[in-house]
C-alpha cells in the first residue's frame, strides 16, 4: 500500500466515518485503499517484479556503492487515524457554525436563491429580489432578510 493511496483512503474514511470509532474508520480506510489500488480488501494487489538473469544475480555490486538512505519509521494505522481525526476535528472547529438564533444571514439568502434556481423558479427569484430592491443576494437589506427568506420558502413550497 503506497503512502499516497493509504493517505487518500484514510482521509476519505475519516470524512465519511469519523464519528463511528477507530475500528470502523480503519475498516473503511482499508476498503477505500483496496478500491483505489484495484484490489479487494482481503486480497492484496499482485506486484510484478522483473526477474533477474542468472548473470545479473551473480555479479557483485561495485565497491564504491553508497549505503541505502534510511527510511522514516513506519507510522501505525492507529496513529494515522488519530492524527486524521484530530485534523478533521480542528477543521470542524475552524468552520463557524450558523444557528437559527443568529438570524437570517447572507449565506441563508444565497442558499434560498440557489434553491429557487434549482427548483426552476428563476423568474420568481428575480421578481422576489426586485421586490426587495435588490439584483443579487447581497443587495437584500439586512433588516428584510427574514421576510425575504419567508417569501422564498413560500415560493419553494408552491405557495
Query: Ranges with pLDDT <50 over ≥5 residues?
Result: 44-49
State the end-to-end distance. Answer: 56 Å
Number of helices: 7
What is the number of E strands?
0
Radius of gyration: 28 Å
Which structural class fits the helix and strand makeup?
Answer: mainly alpha
Helicity level: 55-70%
What percent of residues are in strands?
under 5%
At a glance:
By secondary structure, the protein is mainly α. It contains seven helices and no strands.
What's the structural blueprint in terms of helices and strands?
Layout: H1 3-17, H2 22-37, H3 54-58, H4 77-94, H5 106-118, H6 122-131, H7 145-156
Helix pairs in contact: 1-2, 1-4, 5-7, 6-7
Amino acid at each position: 500500500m503506497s503512502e499516497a493511496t493509504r493517505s487518500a483512503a484514510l482521509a476519505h474514511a475519516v470524512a465519511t466515518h469519523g464519528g463511528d470509532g477507530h475500528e470502523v474508520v480503519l475498516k473503511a480506510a482499508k476498503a477505500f485503499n483496496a478500491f483505489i489500488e484495484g484490489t479487494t480488501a482481503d486480497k492484496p494487489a499482485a506486484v510484478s517484479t522483473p526477474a533477474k538473469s542468472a548473470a545479473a544475480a551473480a555479479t557483485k555490486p561495485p565497491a564504491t556503492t553508497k549505503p541505502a538512505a534510511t527510511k522514516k519509521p513506519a507510522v501505525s494505522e492507529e496513529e494515522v487515524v488519530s492524527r486524521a481525526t484530530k485534523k478533521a476535528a480542528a477543521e470542524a472547529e475552524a468552520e463557524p457554525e450558523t444557528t437559527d438564533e443568529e438570524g437570517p444571514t447572507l449565506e441563508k439568502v444565497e442558499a434560498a436563491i440557489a434553491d429557487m434556481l434549482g427548483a426552476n423558479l428563476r423568474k420568481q427569484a428575480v421578481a422576489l429580489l426586485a421586490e426587495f430592491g435588490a439584483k443579487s443576494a447581497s443587495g437584500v437589506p439586512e433588516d428584510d432578510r427574514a421576510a425575504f427568506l419567508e417569501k422564498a420558502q413560500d415560493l419553494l413550497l408552491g405557495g
